[in-house]
Amino acid sequence: MHEMKVIIREAIRHRRPMVGQGNGLRREFCPHALGHTDGSWRVLIWQFAGLSETGLRDGGDWRCFSLEDLRNLTIRNGEWRRGVAVSADYIREHIAVVDTAVDPNHGPEIKGGFNWFGLASRAAGTARRASQGNPGKS
Fold this sequence. Notes:
The chain has one domain (2-131). It has 4 helices and 8 strands, in the order αββββββαββαα. It has helices at residues 2-14, 88-94, 116-122, 124-131; strands at 18-22, 25-37, 40-50, 61-66, 70-75, 86-87, 97-101, 110-111. Strands 1, 2, 3, 4, 5 and 7 form a 6-stranded antiparallel beta sheet that branches. The chain has a two-stranded parallel sheet with strand order 6-8. It starts with a helix and ends in a 7-residue tail after the last helix.
């Protein structure tokens, strides 16, 4: 799982789309935030192509995956997609502690006063501990 977190962090930091399998289905997406809830690592994505159990609206949809449900992730060339506006409640519902998040100038409009970039900064110590092999509580 460590390798998966590294590649997702890289895609977020460099604003690069990814392709891989989520819940067994091929998906193309832009990861916007990586973090965890109750010890389960999750990634919030804007899925713009590929398959989905519930289908995709024109242009894409927000999805959140446990890293355990993702496979064969690769960074690919292509356009970064910001996604449509998303509510702060939606983000809080899926990721309690943000490890890495896209720069707000390249992310979606977040309704409801949520600043995940600030949370990502506070979580930086957790990310450093994890990369040094001492994950602490994460």
